[in-house]
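Hi P.,

Sorry for the delay on this. The queue was packed all week, but I finally got your sequence through. Input first:
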Amino acid sequence: MKIPKRKKGKHTPSHERAPAQEAELAKRFGGKVTRGSGNGNDKGDVRVKGVLRIEAKTTKHKSFSVTQDMLDKIEEAALTSAELPALVVEFNEEGKPLRSVAVVPLWALDALIPAK
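Then the structure:
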């Protein structure tokens, strides 16, 4: 019988990189890493109380699909605490970061930079 990858206990370099990515984001923005990253009531990976809620993703691939469910989850968590939501995607190679991008709702940019 073949053992599923998720049961083998081996993680990809991206999985191994994720905790460091979260810690770096927390330090960069002066927030805290959320324990359990959404297992409990607190959703999102990093939180700067009253300011920002971040869902962090990391991938070794050249592309990453952002779904409405991902955005809904972090936006709902942020809005209930009057925070701005962000999805941060890190592209890496062998677990080494190459580039990071943030996906935020347009209304969040409007909140930061009012229209003229």
